[in-house]
Amino acid sequence: MRNYIGLIHKDADSDYGVSFPDFPGLITAGTDLDDARRMAEEALSLHVEGMVDDDEAVPEPSSLEQIMANPESNGSVAILVTLKSPAPKIVRVNITLPEDVLRQIDSYAASNGLTRSGFITKAAKRELEIV
């Protein structure tokens, strides 16, 4: 299990927001601190799962010192968020497909924000009923 730093942000009339410096754009929120922590764990897990499905590299966690040295972290409270399910090892494989099927896969993947590997992984999981 790996731990990532989540930064809690709170404005006067808002929920507790959580952002992840190691995953730009990943944010979540909770109505109280306990809810924010639960939501942070869920959001991190789902985000990393999506990265793995799309054959993207999952970054190593930054240190607290690195994150807090960034001026954008000012006014935030740092929490450790545990990635409960480890990212599975990615293995490169060589497969043979008919050219027209490969074109259809690439077209579908591109129009749905997926990589070729991400599409094939999702299709295989659906066929194997590993959702």
Automatic annotation (TrEMBL):
HicB-like antitoxin of toxin-antitoxin system domain residues: 4-124
Alphabetical GO biological process terms: regulation of DNA-templated transcription
Gene3D superfamilies found in the cross-reference section: 3.30.160.250, Met repressor-like (1.10.1220.10)
Top-level taxon in the UniProt lineage: Bacteria
CDD domains in UniProt: RHH_NikR_HicB-like (cd22231)
Protein name per UniProt: CopG family transcriptional regulator
Species of provenance: Xaviernesmea oryzae
